Amino acid sequence: MSTQVDGRAGTTDGRANRPDRAGIADRASAVRRVSAADIAAARSAFPDWRFAPNIGGHPDIYEIENRALDPDGHVLAAMRNLAPWDGRTLVDLGCGTGFWLTGYARDAARVIGIEPDPVLRANAAARIEGLPRAEVLPGSAEHLPLSDRCVDVVHARFAYFLGPGIVGRGKAADTSGGRATDTSGGTAAGAPGDPGLTEVMRVLRPGGSLIVVDNDYRWGQFADLLAAAATAAPQDTARAIDTWWRERGATRHEGRSQWRFANRADLAAVLNIEVPAAVARAWLARHPAATSLSYSCVLFAVTRSNRVSRSPAGAP
Ligand SMILES: C[S@@+](CC[C@H](N)C(=O)[O-])C[C@H]1O[C@@H](n2cnc3c(N)ncnc32)[C@H](O)[C@@H]1O
Q1: For the domain that residue 278 is a member of, what is the CATH number?
Q2: In three state form, how does the secondary structure of 23-82 look?
Q3: Count of domains forming the chain
Q4: Residue 163 Cα, ligand 1 centroid: separation in angstroms?
């Protein structure tokens, strides 16, 4: 199913659900140093961890990106509409620096951020320090540190580790921040996606839902940028993603929004972590006054069946 979701149809004003404005830079001193041994231990514990060049290499700029993304809360409201989390247990899988955790914690009974990257995880833990009902745990899609059937909602925002494994689709190969180890497409390590989806279904209660947020490769100025940066045709990428999720029982929804920045420098900085420098430069030259761009995302929702099934989503 393909449904246009407009956040205005949500049960609450999306803006009210956004996290507080304090960012990781304010808390940098609270984040302990992560050693090479910590990184090596995480790699061994979570073999499915794929370093994210954008947030992993540039957490401060990704913070700006998260603030700019969906300023009117349409995407967040669409997520809430699909799987409400008031009074429930919510997992943010691949939570990065934990940008969204504080907002979720306002309404959820319990919020658990799970992140394999020790550096990002330390940032996320510092962010939620002292927040009741919120915690951050080491883990990955294929290794969730949770018991069976204990979660109502799992969010995975820009979670390239779930789905058909088209990692680095349009992302800048030259902006790895020096720590990238795998932005190749994820196919080298075998067919990705299914083990993680099976693990997510294990921890979901029957009737609970996974909500995946991905870029829309078909609509908006950001989709144009991704197309300019990619080697594969965006229609093919979009079709592969849609097919993968449809075959696993997911419903598909679109959320039209925008990226709105405080100033041009922020826009330029974010473009440079998301697409190759030449693509960013050309776009900025063609849009000399822009401080925003149109953006759309695709949401996939998979609900755990109440019935016993051998398919990853437990789909009938
Ligand atoms: C593009 S970032 C998005 C971060 C965060 N969801 C946000 O929207 O701010 C993708 C995140 O997934 C994490 N990640 C990578 N491989 C993972 C895996 N196998 N399981 C869970 N998270 C993973 C990365 O470390 C990174 O934090």
Answers
A1: 3.40.50.150
A2: CHHHHHHHCCCCCHHHHHHHHHHCCCCCCCHHHHHCHHHHHHHHHHECCCCHHHHHHHHH
A3: 1
A4: 13
